[in-house]
Design brief:
With 285 residues, the protein is an alpha/beta fold. The chain is built from eleven helices and six strands. The chain has helices at 2-22, 36-48, 54-64, 75-83, 86-101, 177-180, 197-205, 221-225, 227-231, 235-246, 257-272; strands spanning 107-116, 134-138, 141-153, 158-165, 185-189, 208-212. Strands 1, 2, 3, 4, 5 and 6 form a six-stranded mixed sheet that branches. Helix 1 packs across helix 2 (36-48), helix 1 (2-22) packs across helix 5 (86-101) and helix 5 (86-101) packs parallel to helix 11.
Amino acid sequence: MKKIVEIYYVVDEVVKQIEQKFGKKFRRGRKNKLRKSELITMALIGHLNDIATDKKLYEFVTSYLESYFKNMPCYEQFSRGIRSISKDLDLMLEILCQLNQTSEEDFYIIDSSALPVGEYDSFDCPKWASDEAKLGKNIFGFYYGFKLHIIINRRMEVVSCMITTANVHDVKMLSIESFIGKIKGKLVGDKGYVCPKKLLKKFMKQGLKCIFKQRENMDPYLNEFYKEDLSQRQVIEGVFSYLKNRLKALHNFARSAESFLVHVKAALAAYMLKNLSNFTVGLTI
């Protein structure tokens, strides 16, 4: 129960600053009985307790957390409220990433993970995702859905994150300033991030040294020379595994792309807030 209060405190501080800076920009539709802070807190608590659907989350809150959230609406309004926090979660993730970037780190790992909305090698995209999900491919096969791109430091803290459609190639993320612009030091990635030397030289001038695993048709010398650094790439797979298996980032019963992505963002925010002591001070946009 102490954890709930701590999460709510951090979330409420972030939401207050979002509202001060952006006002009513992200408020739409009928006013919900629950505040944004309460909705986000419940979403985070749900993922921290292996709850992957809105229905189970609603039952969990009304059964065990009623004393904390006394103005619970009907399930339909609750579900709409959860879907409405997508933009707020975007800003919250941005703030949490900024806080993690303040730590004195000089080693980072970059990678992406598939967020399929259906089965692999099934070319039937669910109707609710057909307008937004795109076709992509990984080692498991073709899939419709999205991609989660993250950069972590040695302490497995997420310092940058972005969700794209599945058809966005990993190397394109190196050209997105908001994703990689504030990273300084050494950046390690797999062969999907191999890019032109011109871009590597640009990064070097900015204080970023990129070490990417070479493809089979390239000079294997670099793979051997940077073997120790490249071997640490596997750490990021543990982060993706924790997000998907422990925090239930993939919402298998989603009925809209918005609902699907809200749960991915909430799981990521829950992961970043595991050590709340890092976020009790310095919460500014």
